[in-house]
Amino acid sequence: MKKYKFPFNGKFGNFGGKYIPETLVPAIEELEESYKKFRKDLDFQKELKDYLENYAGRPTPIYLAKNLTKYAGGAKIYLKREDLLHGGAHKTNNTLGQCLLAKKMGKKRIIAETGAGQHGVGTALASAVLGLECEIYMGLKDTERQKLNVFRMKLLGSKVHSVKSGTQTLKDAINEALRDWITNVENTYYVIGSVVGPHPYPMMVRDFQSIIGKEIKKQIRKITGTLPNAIVACVGGGSNAIGSFYPFIDDQEVSLYGIEAEGSGIKTGKHSATLSAGSTGILHGMQTYLLQDEMGQITPTHSISAGLDYPGVGPEHSFLKEIKRVHYKLCTDDDAIKAFMILSEKEGIIPALESAHAISYGIKLAKKMKKSETIVITLSGRGDKDVEVVQNYLNGIRD
Amino acid sequence: MHKSKSISSKENRIDSKFNELKSKNQKALICYVVAGYPDIKTSENIIASLINGGADIIEIGIPFSDPIADGPTIQDAIQSSLISGTTPYMCLELASRIRKTFPNTPLIIMTYSNILYRKGYFQFAEKAKESGIDGFIIPDIPVEESKEYLNTMQNIGMSTIFLVSPNTSEKRLKRISRICTGFLYAISVYGTTGERKGFDEYTIESIKRVKNVIADKIPLAVGFGISNSQHIKYMIDAGADAVIIGSAIVKKIKEIETNELLYNSLNRFIGELKSSCK
Fold first, then answer.
1. What is the pLDDT of residues A72-125, one digit of tens each?
2. What mean pLDDT is predicted for residues B193-222?
3. In this structure, what are the phi and psi dihedrals at residue A290, rounded to the nearest 5 degrees?
4. Which residues numbered 147-206 in B keep a CB inside 8 Å of some CB on A?
């Protein structure tokens, strides 16, 4: 078996690339060069490791969810506890990495987009601790459904811009951050929150998030003496999923499952299932699967979880779908809410709604597997931010 | 393929236009409109008023849902056009009607890569050619991603206009000017499209630098933020062979409610701007 080695020339097969306005080309080239230099720089790695361990709390635990395992009645379910990372989600792995890189590059001003607000919070805290000025773009619709995260970003010293253009969600926040970057390219570093955007972002964010998978491998080996049979993670842009999967890509015996948000159902058209129901196109600097109409206009998406509400997906996921290394499956709003409740009640853990999609599929999968088998579900974030949305949902109020 | 070759052998309207203006010692006035804003029929009349007022070249903006290179004025117009139901093919039909009335005015499509990619570069470009389009400006296809796009456009005989920015290195400038046809589009500022109060010194330096590198190999057009005669003079003095007006036109369309008043106002506005190009 040939070893998996992508991206090659900035591409994952036909996916990826850098479809960007000319003004951003020098900035992307500078980033590419700097990242190439610092990823191998021992001092940089040492400093990042210190922040990840002593500031953010890595390694995060892997937890055998006995009650959930019993409930599912099949394979042993382990949870990779990214919800326990400082900031409340896996996002901090990437924001510490990128903000430290920005600082080394001499950039003083940080911008970022955010959907659910987790990446915004992650960027805000990393900027605060590293002494960088930070501005966050967030869709108006998201600022309303994630009010607490907006306040958290402000407490962390960041400025939050609510974006009123387009669909007022994550995609438009990215558009606005890109426009800011085009305007302030000389002093600004754009911290992208997922494995999306032009090369080298999908590769760089994957590398920073791969610590999740590396730890899973080490921890599960220590417990079971072998690799897990399956890993399950939710996919919006897809950073926690790639982070979990990447160190296992060459381990063919490990099945990988990426769970997309089916929203109200594929048939209703109200979903965010880019890989399952989309087609290839170009958006936000990358060639990848998109939700779009016949004419190439990006279509509105829906998910109860703001973090999965995105019409694109990381180009590496598009590639992994094409080479059939990862299985991409679906979870509806209703099922995500059910899983949210189950994990809260059975294990005393309130998961982020994004992660609840992975929990839901993980339970179904475990049921079909043998008791001797193991499955790891990446619990990408904690659900404190979502309690109001869930409360409204249970009371029959939907956005 | 035979058909597209015979089309490409015809004289290119963009080159002819620049040659004609050069012989008259004039600079080109390029006008951008968002097709379908406020609606397709009005767009057609707007373009006619622009050409009758003195516009030398028309850029037809095909609305895309995520226009990252555009500022608020054009974003709003694009969104409004999309809401009213404008599709890319409706824009090409609009172009073919304009073509019938104005056989010699160069018509260029400005849009984003996904609009072409979705239908296939070849299929879209061929349909555009049939509609009388002379070239494309696609701000999110940089040289690095242009191979298939360039091959297709060259086969069909379409001009491929590339953008350069104040931070584009000299090495890149040379590379871009080699593959760029029709004219080179220099972005005046760091930023998105939209009106500005004035320009910093770096804009002038940047235009001079670009002009110095490309010399007379290809005409140099300057765009982004240009909205009055003073701006135009400023750009021409720095070395521009053409200026591009976009948001200033879109803003007038937004502000003036009666169509008749709008057409007259645009006609006068463009006449005034064109006189600064002479």
1. 999 999 999 999 999 999 999 999 999 999 999 999 999 999 998 999 999 999
2. 94
3. -140, 160
4. 162-169, 172, 176, 187, 190-192
Cβ(A19)–Cβ(B113) under 8 Å? yes
Q: Rounded to 5 degrees, what angle do the CA atoms A367, A368, A374 make?
A: 75
**Which residues in chain B have Cβ-Cβ distances shorter than 8 Å to A287?**
117
| Distance of alpha carbon A86 from alpha carbon B77, whole angstroms | 43
Interface test with A, best of B62, B64, B66, B148 (most A CBs within 10 A): B66
Identify the pLDDT of residue A398.
57
Radius of gyration of chain A (CA): 19
Q: Nearest 5°: phi and psi at B192?
A: -95, 180
Looking at residue A2, its pLDDT comes to: 78
Domains and CATH numbers, chain B: 27-275 (3.20.20.70)
pLDDT of residue B10: 53
DSSP string of A15-82?
A: EE-----GGGHHHHHHHHHHHHHHTT-HHHHHHHHHIIIIIT-PSPPEEE-HHHHHHHTSSEEEEEEG
Given B79, B112, B187, which is nearest A23 (Cβ)? B187
Query: Which of A104, A129, A58, A146 lies closest to A352 in space, CA to CA?
Result: A146
At A361, list the tokens: 């599929």
Nearest CA in chain B to A288: B114
Residue B111, number of CB atoms within 10 A of its CB: 25
Pair B250, B37: CB distance under 8 Å:
yes
**What gap in Å lies between CA B269 and CA B264, rounded to an integer?**
9
How large is the average pLDDT for residues B56-67?
98
Query: Which residues of chain A carry a pLDDT beneath 70?
Result: 1, 397-399
Give pLDDT tens digits for A49-75.
999 999 999 999 999 999 999 999 999
CB contact under 8 Å between B190 and A283, yes or no, is: no
pTM, whole model, 2 decimals? 0.96
Which residues of A fall within a CB distance of 8 Å from B190? 23, 182-186
The percentage of residues in chain B with a pLDDT greater than 70, rounded to a whole number, is: 96
CB-based contact B165 A21, cutoff 8 Å: yes
- Is the model's pLDDT at B8 over the cut of 50? no
- Active-site positions of A? 91, 113, 380
Cβ B36 vs Cβ B76: under 8 Å? no
Q: What percent of chain B has pLDDT over 90?
A: 94
Q: To which H or E segment does residue A334 belong?
A: helix A333-347
* ipTM for the predicted complex: 0.95
List the structure tokens of A145.
């459904």
Cis, peptide link before residue B38, omega less than 30° from 0: yes
- DSSP string covering A130-188: HT-EEEEEEEHHHHHHTHHHHHHHHHTT-EEEEE-STTSSHHHHHHHHHHHHHHSTTTE
